[in-house]
Write a structure and sequence with these properties.
10-stranded mixed beta sheet; Dna-directed Rna Polymerases I, Ii, And Iii 27 Kd Polypeptide, Chain: A, domain 1; 4 domains; binds S-adenosylmethionine; globular; 630 residues
């Protein structure tokens, strides 16, 4: 359960335009389940325990938070943190799942033997498979209700002079514009920015190519907000006569010879259509499926904040907002629900020399990397579950065929939709009074999984008093299943103190010899990755038989070191907050980034520190991490 509920803004429920509108007789945008939002907003934002997992450098004001937008806002509000600029690029309800390529690294034991010529492999030649980063499949009503709550939560942590940019597209943008009018006020709408990208391939077909996104720009106070005009170079310089006002009349400015003077204009003020390429440049390194270019964020941040101000992104993805904010001297807050986003942002921020604190919101869900992958995993963990069954609507996660009870429809809260996390009276009411009567199969029992219950006794009593059907409702705690998803990888290593000669010349000098601790990774086993690779190979073989095209399976050495993305040792803390004393990250080509600095050397399967390491952290190529004592 949340520790408590934190009110959104003082006047949200009574005063804001939308829910109980005092200036309009009724809501502008009306759709199913609006009433539920009213109750949830009245209850407040769910605040959970927040753990500090790591501090990098000295600046505790910069934050990287793993958790949902709502709970992150509750935490910030509790801490009294106010943000001056918000940029969000939330899921668009695009109907797609976004995946990332996972590259198998080089086997360090072979790497030393590989010649430079083979090092420069194109990424297409590297072994890889795909994994879902996040899901973006919603029905419109659910999405809008979810978005409404998130916007209210974000508003509650914005400073009095803050601005917000909400990045969407034509899928849902127009609906969200109306929500934003209601949440922030129509008078606080400043611009609709069209981000036009010409570098997208034409899709053809019987429509115009969709080559733009829409960004809505609102402020909290229409009379006081930061705005620095954006000046961009003109495509072609223009020359115009210099003119000025004299006694109310505009006249030419003449030079000492009485001739007109001219000025060349090479720059102009940018308007609300931004031409910025979508392709992420080589130097930015694309690490996230929906990563936005730095140039876009630079415009937003420069236009609507000044140095020292706090810039927040509550759907941070690759961390591009935090990175650009940091580079421009702003403070940053990066929030995301997915572990891969947090790791990507963390590693890149370290590489750019930023200092920040990493927080984890203990919201009761032990996620398997991200909500979408957890949902996929759950489907395989519920014993006997059949995902699609005739006679049960998509409201149900599937059906369990039990030898005694028969077919039992199963409800599982959608982890992508934060509103479903707590099983409350309205939710169970919907199940017993709408969804069970609608079943087209004769079920004796339904299973309802929950993450949090409002009040278990009250819930059971409510079911007993209100269930007019003969169908039993069995409540099950989803957390028990989720714990099973997190099976740790296995690591075997040795640690010894050795002497190394750091001098590159042949002459031996004892002063150059240093004692270091060397950890050698002997083997690494990840059942989850092995299973994934097994599935990939199996699919590939089947395809190859069908198409007649050759297929190269992914093979992993016995030591399994190709499955490692990052190794770090902590020489400061034996438990609690992690401190990376030395950190080795291995990129997809096998090169090492040592303590945030890229090198053109291969990883040798070892990590060295001058202090005695107390524990070791290892991250596999899909982002699962384990920590072991040394
Ligand atoms: C479109 S992506 C953001 C991409 C980002 N702007 C970039 O340039 O890399 C949306 C992100 O929202 C995250 N997300 C989805 N639901 C969330 C929630 N309720 N709270 C926080 N993050 C969420 C997803 O994990 C995903 O990383």
């Amino acid at each position: 359960m949340p520790l408590k509920y934190v009110p959104y803004t003082p006047n949200t429920v009574e005063g804001q335009a939308v829910l109980d509108n005092i200036t309009r007789p009724r809501r502008v945008l009306s759709y199913r389940d609006n009433g539920e939002v009213y109750n949830r907003i009245k209850r407040g934002m769910p605040a959970y325990e927040v753990e500090t997992v790591e501090q990098i450098g000295e600046n505790p004001e910069n934050l990287v938070i793993r958790g949902e937008c709502l709970s992150a806002c509750a935490y910030l509000k509790e801490q009294g943190v106010k943000v001056d600029l918000v940029y969000i690029d939330p899921p668009f309800a695009s109907g797609a799942n976004y995946a990332k390529k996972i590259y198998i690294r080089r086997n360090p034991q072979l790497a030393a033997k590989i010649t430079q010529a083979t090092l420069e492999l194109e990424s297409a030649e590297l072994d890889s498979f795909e994994e879902t980063m996040y899901g973006d499949i919603w029905n419109k009503e659910d999405y809008l209700n979810w978005m409404y709550e998130n916007l209210q939560a974000i508003k509650s942590v914005m400073s009095e002079t803050a601005s917000i940019y909400v990045h969407l597209d034509c899928t849902i943008g127009h609906y969200v514009k109306i929500l934003m009018d209601e949440v922030f006020g129509e008078n606080c709408f400043i611009n609709e920015i069209i981000w036009h990208y010409e570098d997208k391939f034409a899709t053809g077909g019987k429509s115009l190519d969709k080559n733009h996104d829409t960004i809505f720009f609102y402020v909290i106070s229409e009379s006081e907000y930061v705005f620095n005009p954006i000046i961009i170079p003109k495509e072609r310089a223009t020359i115009r006569a210099l003119r000025r006002k004299v006694d109310g009349k505009t006249v030419d400015v003449l030079d000492e010879n009485g001739k007109k003077t001219y000025v060349e204009y090479t720059e102009k003020k940018e308007d609300d259509v931004w031409q910025i390429g979508r392709t992420i440049s080589q130097t930015e390194s694309k690490s996230y499926a929906t990563q936005k270019p730095k140039a876009l964020l630079e415009r937003v941040i420069k236009a609507s904040s000044n140095e020292g101000m706090v810039v927040a992104d509550f759907f941070g993805g690759s961390g591009v907002t935090a990175k650009v904010a940091s580079a421009l001297g702003r403070k940053f807050i990066h929030v995301d629900i997915g572990i891969n986003s947090i790791q990507t942002a963390r590693d890149d921020l370290i590489a750019e020399g930023a200092s920040f604190v990493m927080k984890e919101i203990k919201d009761g869900v032990s996620l398997f990397r991200n909500p979408q992958q957890t949902m996929d995993k759950l489907a395989t963990l519920i014993p006997g579950l059949q995902r699609r069954a005739a006679g049960v609507s998509s409201f149900w996660f599937g059906v369990i065929n039990d030898s005694k009870v028969g077919a039992m429809p199963v409800y599982v809260p959608d982890l992508i939709d934060s509103r479903q996390k707590v099983l409350d009276i309205p939710a169970i009411n919907r199940i017993i009074n709408q969804e069970i009567p609608r079943l087209e199969i004769a079920a004796q029992r339904v299973v309802v999984y929950y993450i949090d219950l409002d009040d278990e006794l009250e819930m059971k009593k409510f079911i007993k008093d209100n269930n007019v059907t003969t169908v039993d409702v069995e409540l099950r705690d989803l957390k028990n299943l989720l714990h099973e998803t997190v099976v740790n990888d296995e690591l075997e290593f040795s640690c010894q103190q050795i002497a190394v000669d750091n001098h590159d010349q042949d002459l031996f000098d004892p002063a150059d010899v240093k004692e270091v601790y060397q950890v050698v990774i002997k083997s690494f086993v990840s059942d989850r990755l092995n299973q994934k690779i097994g599935e990939f190979n199996e699919k590939g073989y089947v395809q190859s038989v069908k198409t007649g095209k050759p297929f190269k399976p992914i093979t992993i050495s016995e030591e399994g070191l190709e499955l490692i993305e990052l190794v770090a040792v902590d020489c400061v803390n034996a438990e609690g907050q992690w401190h990376s004393s030395v950190e080795v990250k291995i990129d997809k080509l096998g090169y090492v980034t040592l303590n945030g600095k890229k090198n053109k050397v291969f990883w040798n399967g070892k990590i060295e520190s001058t202090e005695k390491p107390l524990r070791i952290k290892l991250r596999n190529i899909s982002g699962d991490e384990i920590i072991q004592a040394i």
